[in-house]
Amino acid sequence: MYKLSILNSARLIRGGIMSSRSVSTLTYIELDRNGQITSSALSSLAASRKLGDSIDALILGANAMKAASDLISSGNTNNLEKIIVAESPIYDHTLPEYISPLICELMKGSKYSSFVMASTEIGKNVLPRIGALMNTQPICDITMIHNKDTFERPIYAGNVLATIKKDGGKKLITIRASSFPPVVEGTPERIPIEKYSYTPEKDVGIRWDAENLVTNKRPDLASAKIVVSGGRALKDKKTFDGLLGSLADVLHAGIGSTRAAVDSGLCDNSLQVGQTGKIVAPDLYFAIGLSGAIQHLAGMKNSKVIVAINNDADAPIFQIADYSLEGDLFEVVPELTKKLKLMEKN
Fold this sequence. Notes:
The protein is α/β, with parallel strands linked by helices.
């Protein structure tokens, strides 16, 4: 692992120098499709605390008020000064054309020195637009906060850690949720909820039409405690669903895949783990029939325990696996599933 230092001085960025009164962090609280606060949102709050300033939480959508009440009831409110809600269904689909101008409006003036959100699909879609509107370079996918001006993020598929220092100016940050454990529940506090109304200056020229979702009753891949992932060696979609699905069901696990498996039509691209897919760090990660290409390792190598099953003794995945099993996955996985089912019954 190599380390690279990058100094990002405010004198080189047209973002302006912050007033000394800028002592608050605005944190975006992401909701799932059911209006529930996501685990990555709680990770964003945990990261915001490390900046050392007071925190205002921002919740958008038709269920924003209920989500704000749930956040207060959960007790995950340490260092939280207030919760800002913009309750409107136009934010339910997190279209950046609607969200970004609202956040930019909030970030005006000297109230907020930093804006933090998780590096999810939403964060990757929204933050660059905010950066363009504010003429400020975002600091993306950080995995460590040294202090309010110095951050660490992986580059080159995680093989190099870049230390980025930005003195002055407003900071736009996305965090890698797996690197910041979610804030834990505590004693509920009295936190004020402030309603915020924003009217765009002009028609954004885009509207939500429809969506066609792949439904899945299994745990969400990004937050699952156990993940079972398969590669192209599973040959076809029927085998992928059958072998991995049975094992995932008995483990109550989420299912992941490599990009090669997605490109081969074995599964939907929403299951892809890796540099261009989802970043996961579960307690237990099964790598089945995948070689361990560097792009895939970038998305799962921080898993607490990695179990690799492969018939190639030289597969790179064995180099990082905690437990390695060299064998034919078409024999090993059904046998493993059978043994686990027997254990579950007993």
